[in-house]
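QA checklist item 7 of 12: single-chain prediction sanity check.
[x] sequence parsed
[x] length recorded as 372
[x] structure emitted
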Amino acid sequence: MKKLLTGQGEIQGIESLGDLRTQAALTERSVEKLKKQLLDFQVLEEYHDLENEARSLTKQISALIDEKVLDREYLDNLQESFSLENPPEMDKVIRIYKEALSEVPDMVRRKLEETKVFYESVVRNRRLYLEGEITELQAKIKKKDGAIEAFEKRKSEIMNILNSHGALEQYSNLQAELTRMHIILESTKEKIRLLEQLSETKSEAKLERAKLELMLKKNYAEQAELYNKAIKVFEDFSSQFYENPGSLVIEPTPNGPDFYVKIQGERSKGIRNIQIFCFDMMLMQILKDQGFGPDFLIHDSHLFDGVDERQIATALKIGKETSERLRFQYIVTMNSDVLPKRDIVGIDLNSFKVSVELDDKTDTGGLFGFRF
């Protein structure tokens, strides 16, 4: 986002033409992609059924794999047990007896032989059982491998179908997205058109301001004597209020002539108001010297807000003398309690009062609906 300068100032947050053109180009490409997707889209009525079947197959495959893991662990345990199932070594027992006794009794030898036969029978039966369990478990694992392979094959077939087709709502969503992108594209193009117009207007305004500034500079040079007179007259009025009077500055700018007052010290409201008074009096004198202008000047009481009593008195005195000298009517609206005293002004202000008499002798009398 950039700031765009116009003849009226700054417009915040307007995208540049470059940004908008880039956005339009990318949006247009998205529109073309969506059009192609819609053109190639194949709607499959059984789409959701196949989706559900694929999800079911995924769950079954996962369950079978979990079962296979448990079966494998059990098979490993069975095979380990099978390898450990061996008949007892009777020779070791006899050797121990011989070491303990000089001779092994016949009765003990017979008992050992019987025990050996018994344990060999137990081990044989145990190994037969383990072999059966191992064979059965291996068959179950093989069967599950086959089921997993079949499920994965079916799932692969379904996914190929789903990848090459789509559901009706997907098609509708693509259409809605295409419509939305069309709106964005048209909106962006409209912004580009408006911004181009604005840019053209800005260029024209800039050219006009340059012409205006050139005309002002030319006029300033041609009317230098009049400008100098205005500056001197302003200072004459301002010097009657301050020891260091304000100086009127007039400068030609691209936006027209700029008037401001340079004055030392704090620029309070009272000082600004007195400078306005001096400016108005200067205008009246310049206009009268040129032989035209209004025959009256009106100042409202607000002009004297923040101005001390002595400066108000000076302003009223200047107004009286200037209006008499230049032959125009000077009117001031002011509350009587704000009027400076006679000994300060040096003139009788009562002789200049235009008093309004209010009475309630008639139905139209009174003030703001109040009767006395």
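[x] summary fact logged: The chain has two domains: 14-182, 224-352.
[ ] second reviewer sign-off
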